[in-house]
Amino acid sequence: MRFYPAVERIAFFATLAAVLALALLPIPRLEEYGIDIGFRSDKLNHASAFAVMTFLGGLGWPDRKTRLIVFLAMIGAAIEVLQGTALIRRDLDVFDWFADCAGIACGLVAVICVNWILRRRG
Known about the structure:
This protein is mostly helical. The chain has one domain (5-121). 75% of the residues lie in helices and 0% in strands. The protein is built from five helices and no strands. α3 (42-60) packs antiparallel against α4, α3 runs parallel beside α5 and α4 (65-83) packs antiparallel against α5. The model has no long low-confidence stretch (mean pLDDT 91).
């Protein structure tokens, strides 16, 4: 039994767009728009966002997990570099990227477990 890859892929891209918007908008803009979502811990925000994207991407592209992992790790690194620019004026923090990678690992474990359960049910 499979979920619906088209729906999973759309959910992945919608989540990716939301994560990019939240990560790349300057803090004053987020405050101006009244956007204050997530956990109090920045690292937990990073890890959970990348776990969800990995989970959705792993369901949407089950045969391309390696590419997904590399893509998301590069997105996480790019976000950090861009956050350190004068345009965005947020903090470049390598530990945020480590949190992204930890989230990728958690999302990968979750999608592997779901796929294993679905194969057993059959």
